[in-house]
TrEMBL record:
InterPro entries: HATPase_C_sf (IPR036890), HATPase_dom (IPR003594), His_kinase_dom (IPR005467), PAS (IPR000014), PAS-like_dom_sf (IPR035965), sCache_3 (IPR033463), Sensor-like_sf (IPR029151), Sig_transdc_His_kin-like_C (IPR004358)
Subcellular location: Cell membrane
Keyword flag Heme: no
Identification of the protein by name: histidine kinase
Length: 523
């Protein structure tokens, strides 16, 4: 049986249970029916015997010259009406006056008569001339209480057995019907179980469960199962780590897990999605969902999560390096133009103008570099500002550093600072280009009172009230295309550093980020 499938074992077990239950029920019904039939027979014989013994015609017949002539027809008539097998009226010494077999009249009664002679009514099972029977014997007393005769009424055991056979037969038919219905129902249930277990045995199911548990705990990617009602039914270790979920997260509606709104909406949507980027407090996740269906019915959603945070950081670094390369390319392009201009002026015989032009260009470039280096002593941020300045100039946007800027080594994570400042400047340059000329972006960097303040203002059209509320949500953008992660990444980096971000309206939009400085950077 160990090699049987779980469905087959369940079928065998259920059939045994049904057979035992039906057999036990039939046995109980048999014994109960036997007792009831015997009790019913006793009650009938007792009632008949007492009724005959109390009849005035019986006493009158006993005083006649031939009691048999009167009592025999009377007893047979009562016997036929009451369906008992015999009514025997006898003298106190047991000599019969009546009997269903006339040849037995005048012979001695076979049974116990002592209790009746003592004035009591008693019932017993005794074997007489008609075979074993249940009988009741009672005295016939006159007005003085003297016992004048005895009356015995009985029903044969054969007749009782016939009734019992009928009762048991009906019970047996019902038992067979119950057995058939139980077996049929069990077969249907087992067929469904076989479909659901794919015919696998208990050991195979146990092994699959062990594999299932091992895989869930081994994979680094997050895996969630959400049922059709939007309740989390399974969550592996990877998903708990990526989403910061508690150990008892299973059984909780996804709307109560405390996840970001965009991610909550996706988990509750019951839709197929592929490789969507979503942000939590400190991670960038790639989320895919697949709806599980049985026919036209949705059983739930399988959700996979991949941590994109490190890749996003590397991508941000690559974007920064690409920005520096673009800045160098722009600077090289501008330098080539200036050099060609100087050479042409010399060839035209105007060396003084060539020197003046070259000096002025060198002074402007050096002035920007000196101003950035003097105000921002964090080399990574200084390089970022110089690169962004060259990029903005190439796009026709003036990027200037606020005169009151002053920022040394802030002691903050440079990758987060680059993400914050770089994305804010990129968005500001895009906004300034869509506004009225002249396009201008102003950057202010300060470290005062234990707080690093980054302020980026643009001359663009600004943000409306609705846009201010949506600005930090994943996917929001004013460009009409793209994934809209810039400001979301800024907000995430600000949260990681324990800071705040504020958006106000100036000539355009003004973004102000305040980050608490570490203790060692405040000294």
């Amino acid at each position: 049986m160990r090699r049987w499938s779980l469905a087959r074992q369940m079928l065998a077990l259920q059939i045994v249970v049904v057979v035992v239950t039906v057999a036990a029920g039939t046995a109980m019904a048999f014994f109960q029916a036997r007792d009831l039939v015997a009790a019913d027979a006793t009650g009938v014989t007792r009632a008949v015997a007492l009724s005959v013994a109390g009849s005035p015609s019986v006493l009158a017949a006993l005083d006649s010259a031939d009691p048999v002539a009167t009592l025999q027809p009377y007893a047979e008539k009562v016997r036929a009406n009451t369906k008992v097998d015999f009514i025997t009226i006898m003298s106190p010494d047991g000599m019969r006056y009546t009997h269903p077999r006339p040849g037995e009249i005048g012979k001695r009664y076979l049974g116990t008569i002592a209790p009746a002679l003592a004035g009591r009514t008693e019932s017993e099972t005794y074997t007489g001339t008609l075979g074993p029977s249940i009988r009741t014997i009672t005295p016939v007393q006159d007005s003085t209480g003297r016992v004048r005769a005895l009356v015995s009424a009985g029903i044969t055991v054969e007749k009782i057995s016939g009734r019992l056979r009928d009762e048991v037969g009906a019970a047996g038919v019902a038992a067979l019907l119950g057995l058939g219905a139980g077996t049929a129902g069990t077969s249907l249930a087992v067929r469904r179980l076989r479909r659901q277990t794919h015919g696998l045995g208990p050991s195979e199911l146990s092994r699959m469960y062990d594999y299932h548990e091992a895989i869930l705990h081994a994979v680094r990617e997050g895996l969630l199962l959400v049922d059709g009602a939007g309740t989390l039914t399974l969550c592996n270790d990877g998903a708990r780590t990526l989403l910061g979920l508690p150990e008892d997260a299973e059984g909780t509606p996804v709307t109560a897990l405390g996840l970001p709104p965009s991610l909550t909406e996706l988990l509750a949507s019951g839709a197929n999605r592929s490789d969507e980027l979503h942000l939590t407090e400190d991670r960038v996740l790639v989320v895919s969902t697949s709806v599980v269906r049985s026919g036209a019915r949705s059983l739930g959603t399988v959700v996979t999560l991949r941590d994109h945070t490190e890749l996003q950081a590397v991508t941000g670094q690559l974007d920064a390096e690409r920005g520096f390369a673009d800045a160098l390319r722009s600077a090289a392009h501008e330098s080539a133009n200036r050099l060609h201009t100087v050479i042409t002026l010399v060839e035209l015989g105007k060396p003084a103008q060539a020197v003046a032009f070259a000096t002025e260009e060198l002074r402007a470039a050096q002035e920007l570099t000196d101003r950035v280096v003097a105000t921002v002593r964090e080399p990574v941020l200084a390089a970022l500002l110089l690169g962004k300045s060259a990029q903005a100039g190439e796009r026709g946007v003036e990027l200037c550093i606020s005169p009151d800027s002053e920022l040394g080594d802030a002691g903050l994570d440079t990758h987060d600072l680059v993400a914050i400042l770089g994305n804010l400047i990129d968005n500001a340059v895009d906004a300034a280009m869509s506004g009225a000329p002249p396009a201008r972006v102003e950057v202010s960097l300060k470290a005062t009172g234990g707080v690093c303040e980054i302020r980026v203002a643009d001359s663009g059209p600004g943000l409306g009230p609705d846009a201010l509320e949506l600005a930090y949500q994943r996917g929001w953008t004013t460009k009409g295309s793209g994934r809209g992660l810039g400001l979301s990444l800024v907000a995430q980096a600000v949260r990681r550093l324990g800071g705040t971000i504020e958006v106000t309206e100036g000539a355009g939009a003004v973004f102000t980020v305040r980050l608490p400085l570490p203790e060692e950077a405040r000294a």
